Amino acid sequence: MQTVSSDHESNTTSIGVIKLRVGVPKKDGFAQFVKVVWNSRENKYNNVSGYCMDIFNAVVKNLTFKVSLQIEPYVNESKHSAGTYDSLVRQVPVKYDVVVGDISIVADRSQFVDFTLPYTESGVRMLVPIQHGRHQTMWIFVKPFSWQLWLSILIINMLIGSVILIMERNVHTLPDDRQEERSSFKKQLSAMTILWFPISQAVLPERQVVAKNCSRFVLMVWLLLAFVLMQSYTANLTSILTLDKMQPSFFSVNDLRKGDHYVGYQAGSFVYDLLVKQFKFSPLKLKAYSNISSYNHALKLGSQRGGVTAIFDEVPYLNVFLRRFRSNYIIAGPTYRTDGFGF
Fold it and tell me: Per residue, what are the HEC states of the chain?
């Protein structure tokens, strides 16, 4: 967007064109949102671009009246940023008529200015390094199935065992065997027999232990189910034992706070107040960074070597970071909702 020079005495020209003084932030990183280019030859800023400016330009083009824009980057005499986003917002309406950029809508800023509707979905989340490894324990053999499925298998196993033994109770028909059959049937209905019978048939199906056709049908259904379960169990266990599982090195804010870790945030962002006031981090444990390269460097070092263990930032910035460093980092924990970016 090219800057338009004009005086500040009136917001409306003689031909009915509304003039707006537009303030934009000057930042070192995340040029995808706002990028301010300084022309050293002409000694002025002659181009402001980025996602936020594209959205603003599209809005201006669809207005029913003409607007003349005067773009003024928020910089000091040394051409660096003149302050935080909070101080930039407070320049309205004294220095600017509107502020355009990756300005988050938060309650404290709403006390000084009116925001438009948000044009991005936002939220604050935690970025941590990916932890590689399988962390196998002696209970690894139960992990292929959930505890609900293990419980269901046990119940079905006992049910099938009970049904088959009940259906087979009158197989012997000789009168002399009736008394002996009653006593043996009571023994058969013990919990151990009911539990072990279907398992033994799944392991040794060649044994002929049932005589009735209905019992054979129930047993065939059980053997088919057992075959499917064994194939699924084998595949899942093989995957657990062989594949490198990626998971976050930390899962929650409490883990970081209890471990006395350093955490990072974007310089000038409202996230600092969120970390101190809501998450109860000590200000001494917070470090500010300005771009994705410094994020990556700090996370690689870790807290013990002068870096940080995690980065807290808004989701749009973290998505930009992950487009470049996705293989080494992951977003973890819940989303702490914010209202997004607005003008």
Answer: CCCCCCCCCCCECCCCCEEEEEEEECCCCCCCCCEEEEECCCCEEEEEECHHHHHHHHHHHCCCCCEEEEEEEEECCCCCECCCHHHHHCCCCCCCCEECCCCECCHHHHCCCCCCCCCCCCCEEEEEEEEECCCCCCCHHHCCCCHHHHHHHHHHHHHHHHHHHHHCCCCCCCHHHHHHHHHHHHHHCCHHHHHHHHHHHHHCCCCCCCCCHHHHHHHHHHHHHHHHHHHHHHHHHHHHHHCCCEEECCCCHHHHHHCCCCEEEECCCCHHHHHHHHCCCCHHHEEEECCHHHHHHHHHHCHHHCCCCEEEEEHHHHHHHHHHHCCCEEEEEEEECCCCECC
